[in-house]
Amino acid sequence: LASAQAFRGFAPPPNQASVARRPTPRAMPDEWPNWTQIERVVKSGAFLSGNDEFVAFKKKVTKSSPEDIDAQAQHASMMWEFLIGFAAVKRLYRNHILQVVNKLMQVPSWVEAWQGRPELRAKVQELPEDLQAALGAQHEAIIGSLTPGAVQAMQNLSIDERPDEVRRDMERDRMVDEIRAECAACPGSLAAAAFENDSAGASTEAEASASPRDPKITKDQKALMDGVDAVLNIDDVARLDDEGGAALNLLRIGCIMCAGKEELMSMEVNHAHLVFGFLVSYVRRRPNEIERAAEVMNQLMASPSWSAMFDCAPLRESIQELPVEAQVALAMQHEKLLAIVTNEAQVRAKGGDVSDRLKSVAVKMQSIRVPPRSGAAARMPPPPPAPDVWKEAKTPEGHAYYYNLRTKESVWERPAALGGPHVYKVGDEVEVWSNSKRIWGRGKVEAVSGGSVTAAFDVGGGSAKKELPATHRDIRPFRVPATKSWSSQESESYQRWFRAIAGGSHDAKPGSAVAQFLLTSGIRKPVLKQIWHVSVPSAQPDIGFEDFAKCCRLVAHCQALGPSDPLILQADRPLRVKMREQFL
Question: What per-residue confidence (pLDDT) applies to 272?
Fold first, then answer.
């Protein structure tokens, strides 16, 4: 299957200009929607076709101040009629409509416009009573338009539709929109955009309900899964440098959307060690981006299940080696972080001696967090017990440690379940940690005696020798970096196809051109999106041969699975896991 023979090939590509064309990313609108088009929708009653107008209006309202909204008050009367008509036919947009109504009702001129249209009362009363009740809860001015049954239904309104939570939901959407707009401006995202759905409105409507691929997975849960999965995809320093920013942004989105939702946060807690290690490693390499990492750390540590896993992650030393400013920012997110930073960082954190932007992170994250609900813990079914399995993780410096998913115990020595302690022999190639240089040096075992190992190793242009217990964390077997091997048939075919792609150089091709080439394989866009996610560092605009070859091999495997395979139909995390673990 991993050979070019299994690959059914590509259809002839369209003309070269089409192949090389970069898709236009979807950006957030900077202007108010087309009021003339909204007026046409209102006059014709064609609210079913009003998706684009509503999405544009909602995004603009979300990021606008009350003063900005007030400046558009001349359109308020018409817009209220549009919103009521749209709500009547677009049930999946219910939460988004409530957000918009909530924000508009904070502007006096828009309240006056509502009160100036008494004829809207009849239109409101044609809505389902539970929707009337949800709208009425957003502002007292709307209550007078409700039927008696709807007023009664307000007493049983779900917590998610109460005004405070609606406002929190809108702020979460605003923050997510900002991150996505930032990601859309990244050159590497232009190629990946080729695998998005063709309809801009379709994704929004799908997001308004549960995931269309698996009704049991909500959009919030899927966002957190995607963020964690992006972190798990980073397995070396090169990928951390290339993809770390994109992975952090996906993790930010997931944590924002699941803020305070412990039932969702706990589902990903088995990956906590790797995620915490990623955050510390990322800040070490990019300390100027501590604000973003602190946002994520705040939400993770607010989760009881994640906070408990942090207790057994040996990160104290790694965090204390961060710049003091970064330590202070992290310390302000949770008391457990405050307890492990250096004394200097503790003093500064307690005194608020940090920039206003970093000081505001904890307040901002708290403001979007769903507050604990009375009796919620008792109503939630207990999570399934974690398997009694040992997992390997690494500190940001590369020291391996092992933790048990069920007991939460962590140890430096490899447990028997994973093969027991390493056994070294004279002549074995090893790597030894240099405390002075803070790097790993490659060397060889010179002697083994009484449970101790003596190794000579090169470090920083010089040489050194250490005697360590065989189980010590500062010595590890040397492993040749994993490389992808292509059969001669694969290599010949992939090289030929790579050279045929227009643009770029001998060594790299435009990502957008590679994406267009992959589209000719006949594989559905959602599946190609998963292939791209696994094969290509998302931040890079150009694609080298190795990443291109990985794409081709994965296309072959997906073709072999067939269009009716459950993994292909779902086109989500399970497929990515299989591709990483079995196909590459």
Answer: 92
Three-state SS across 291-331?
Answer: HHHHHHHHHHHHCHHHHHHHCCCCCHHHHHCCCHHHHHHHH
Burial 105-120 (b: 16+ CB within 10 A, else e): bebeebbebbeebeeb
Q: What pLDDT, on the 0 to 100 scale, is given for residue 30?
A: 61
**Residue 125: closest CA among 142, 102, 111, 103:** 142
CB proximity list for 155: less than 8 A, separation 6 or greater: none
With CA atoms as reference, report the closest residue to 544 among 495, 497, 508: 508
Indicate the DSSP class of residue 418: G
Mean local confidence (pLDDT), 517-545: 86
Residue 354 pLDDT greater than 70, yes or no: yes
Take residue 475 and report the two structure tokens written for it. Answer: 């010595």
Provide the 10 A C-beta neighbour count for residue 560.
14
* Phi, psi torsion values for 423, nearest 5 degrees: -110, 120
- Four-point Cα dihedral 361, 367, 370, 372, nearest 10: 90
Q: What is the DSSP string of 51-66?
A: HHHHHHHHHHHHT--H
If you search the block for the tokens 């416009």, which residue do you land on? 113
Which pTM was predicted?
0.80
Alpha helices in 185-323 (DSSP H): 187-192, 200-207, 219-232, 237-257, 262-265, 272-285, 290-302, 304-310, 316-320
Percent of the chain scored above 90 by pLDDT? Answer: 61
Please state, in angstroms and as integers, the Cα–Cα distance from residue 226 to each residue in 29, 184, 251, following that order. Answer: 25, 17, 7
Is the pLDDT reported for residue 191 higher than 90? no
Are the C-beta atoms of 251 and 228 separated by less than 8 Å?
yes
**Structure tokens belonging to residue 57:** 């209006």
